[in-house]
Design goal:
Order of helices and strands of chain B: HHEEHEEHEE
Helix content of chain A: 25-40%
Largest interface: A-B, 64 and 53 residues
Radius of gyration of chain A: 34 Å
Largest sheet of chain A: 7 strands, mixed
Number of strands of chain A: 27
Oligomer: heterodimer
CATH topology of the largest domain in chain A: Aminopeptidase
Number of domains of chain B: 2
Distance between the termini of chain A: 119 Å
Number of strands of chain B: 6
Strand content of chain A: 25-35%
């Protein structure tokens, strides 16, 4: 008893006991042994394979960690380790990537990415979760990484293309380019550069040797592929004869088809100026649709409480559009066989969907919606004509349908069906838009801003060729003044009426060609 | 013996204090590291690309700025839209009506859907004309597409509600895909 008391009263012993206790406490929670394996690293650049040690440093997690020095070694990059702040910096392909022990955030260039696990510290150096190699590195550099946790095989720099090959076929006025992928990938076609189509395949890794065409074939002059960080971009140069294209998806999304069409060579030279873009059209159903222009629906934009845009000097868009609509009716009434219906005859508020419904109920053959334009400054001017963007490719439509089903809204089904309704007339709508744009810009000497496509509410669901024309800018002092004058309104109406007659003649010619 | 009991009590107290300290420290380190990082300003900054309409309203002009990185995507979107609303520093035209404010951004991670709730100024009288509507949407959607590529859909709201259009033209009744505006 005395001995015990002696020991306990001895202050040094107390410290020892406390130290023992605290160290025991500190080790108790991580009383787990990190699992260690040896993984094989295979290189795509011809270096011979090597082995690397991986550890599981977090209890209840399957994540493997790689030592910072090994990571720098296998990536062949420079490394800088500051022990005092426990930061590791790797210089990978020009990017400084910073890891901090105990933190999940990885700072690479101007981006910060959060890992699921914190950077660990073991055996005197930082250990990086393999998630960095698997998921982050491919985003920060062009290096490709494959990691198979079952066979413990890490492959670096091996090319695993998923945009693998292409084929070109020419038939009649069409040239088709087929791009094959190993799995369905989302894509988008950029047609903003004249005579070019840029097919951007998201998540695509292009086999650039396979996607190359040096000499012209049909309407396609050349094909080349570029690899971007998150997408493959296929550049297609087109012959100047190319006038329209469609992008389709086949084979469950694993093939993208670009179907380029040559403008038919007419006996009378076609004077219609093409907009800055190729016209994107839609496939199959549209073919052979017969349009006979007998009833024209004119939609004067806005009305009633909805004044539209206010112009210089208190001019209101709703008044300008109504005046032009009445004037178009007056001009067309003089034509035989053409009936005109206005969606509003007075200064009344009519809903957008009601307007389209009215056009459908009246069984119109053409819908023209008249609007005035606006912009934030007073510099913008000119005329532009819109038709509806075609619905996406079949595959996209499927995706949309699945998404809608997931949302579970019954009315979305209606929406898709009505969306497709205008698709049936997308070719004709494009032709009508070109006719209107040509008349407006040529006859009235207005700045030609081109034919454009967008998702206009009033055009969705129109069961006829349908366009929206912006006759001028109310935010532009001079144009606004002209738009307010009765004589200029008459000129606009005349140009629109002539465009409708041009379109009728074109449709009549098409019907005669294919009886 | 009394001395022994006293000592034992003192030792017990010290141990209790020590274990409390240890447990408290444990909780502290187990707590959100990101919070600490954020407070310490270690979330860092990120460069973002903003798009503004050009003078004629028929194209977009890009501008790069640096913003404070945020922990949540919603907050970062709000910061980026605030920059857009501030307008261009160089060429280009501020592509929102006067007084437009973003009330809140909400990102639904499961559906990759971003909700942007603006105040009523977005659909005020100044808004009108296809160019203004399309370029306002274009400025916003291309910026989102470039700075937040993971966002698949954007739904516009005004004062918390869906709107049919901004100014009577372009359909906003279904979510828009930023990718279509690249």
């Amino acid at each position: 008893m005395i001995r015990v008391r002696q020991i306990l009263t001895f202050p040094g012993a107390l410290v020892v006991v406390l130290l023992l206790l605290s160290s025991g406490l500190a080790q108790a929670p991580d009383g787990f042994e990190p699992e260690t394996v040896t993984a094989k690293v295979r290189y795509g650049d011809g270096r011979s394979s090597q082995s690397v040690t991986l550890k599981r440093l977090v209890p209840d997690s399957n994540e493997w960690f790689i030592a910072g020095s090994d990571l720098a070694d296998i990536l062949q990059v420079g490394r800088y380790w500051r022990f005092d702040v426990r930061k590791l910096v790797l210089r990978i392909d020009g990017n400084r990537i910073t890891f901090t022990v105990g933190a999940r955030s990885v700072v690479g260039g101007e981006r910060t990415i959060l890992l699921r696990q914190e950077v660990a510290f073991d055996a005197g150096e930082p250990w990086i979760p393999m998630e960095f190699l698997r998921e982050v590195l491919p985003q920060l550099s062009e290096r490709s990484v494959g990691w198979d946790p079952d066979t413990l095989l890490l492959s670096l720099g091996e090319q695993s293309y998923n945009v693998t090959s292409m084929g070109i076929r020419t038939e009649g006025l069409f040239t088709e380019l087929r791009i094959k992928m190993s799995s369905p990938l989302a894509f988008r076609v950029d047609d903003s550069r004249p005579r070019h189509l840029f097919l951007k395949i998201y998540g695509g890794r292009a086999d650039r040797d396979a996607l190359r065409l040096g000499r012209p074939q049909g309407l396609i002059e050349s094909v080349g592929a570029q690899q971007e960080r998150t997408a493959a971009v296929v550049e297609v140069r087109l012959s100047e004869l190319a006038s329209k294209y469609q992008s389709l998806s086949e084979d469950g999304g694993k093939t993208v088809v670009l179907r380029v069409e040559q403008a038919p060579i007419t006996t009378i030279p076609d004077p219609v100026p093409r907009g800055p873009h190729l016209v994107q059209t839609l496939p199959p159903e549209a073919k052979g649709r017969k349009v006979e222009v007998r009833k024209v629906i004119i939609d004067a934009g806005h009305g009633g409480a909805d004044i539209g845009r206010a112009g210089v000097g208190g001019l209101l868009e709703k008044d300008v559009t109504l005046a032009i609509a009445h004037e178009v009716e007056r001009v067309l009434r003089r034509e035989r066989d053409i009936d005109v219906v206005l969606t509003r005859r007075e200064d009344t508020d009519v809903g957008l969907v009601e307007r389209t419904e009215m056009a459908n109920q009246e069984a119109g053959d053409v819908l023209i919606s008249i609007h005035c334009n606006g912009w934030y400054n007073s510099a913008a001017n000119g005329v532009e004509t819109y038709f509806l963007s075609p619905a996406k490719t079949e595959w996209d439509a499927d995706v949309a349908r699945a998404e809608n089903a997931a949302v579970g809204a019954a009315e979305d089904l209606d929406f898709i069906l009505w969306d497709l309704v205008q698709n049936l007339y997308i070719q004709e709508s494009a032709t009508l838009a070109e006719a209107v744009q040509q008349r407006m810009s040529n006859d009235l000497k207005l700045r030609n801003r081109g034919v454009k496509q967008a998702g206009f509410r009033v055009l969705v669901g129109a069961y006829m060729p349908a366009i929206l024309v912006e006759v001028g800018f109310l935010s532009h002092a001079e144009e606004s003044k002209r738009l307010g004058s009765a004589s200029f309104q008459r000129d606009i109406a005349r140009a629109l009426a002539d465009a409708i007659l041009d379109f009728r003649a074109r449709m009549d010619a098409v019907r005669e060609e294919s009886p | 013996m009394r001395r022994f009991v006293l000592l034992f009590v003192a030792l017990a107290l010290v141990m209790a204090g020590l274990s409390y300290w240890y447990v408290a420290r444990q909780v502290d380190t187990d707590g959100d590291v990101d919070d600490e990082l954020e407070i310490a300003g270690e979330m860092g900054t990120r460069a973002v690309t903003l798009y503004f309409g050009n003078s004629q309203g028929d194209g977009l002009i890009s501008e790069t700025r640096t913003i404070q990185a945020r922990r949540y995507r919603d907050e970062e979107v709000e910061a980026v839209v605030a920059e857009l609303l501030r307008g261009p520093e160089r060429d280009g035209v501020r592509s929102f009506p006067e007084g437009t404010l973003l009330r809140r951004a909400f990102y639904d991670e499961d559906n990759h859907m971003l909700y942007l709730d603006f105040n009523g100024a977005l659909v005020a009288e100044e808004m009108g004309g296809s160019t203004m509507e399309l370029m306002t949407m274009g400025s916003l959607l291309r910026t989102i597409a470039v700075d937040f590529p993971e966002v698949a859909h954007v739904q516009f709201l005004v004062e918390g509600l869906e709107v049919e259009t901004l100014g009577g033209n372009v359909d906003l009744t279904r979510p828009l895909r930023p990718g279509d505006w690249l």
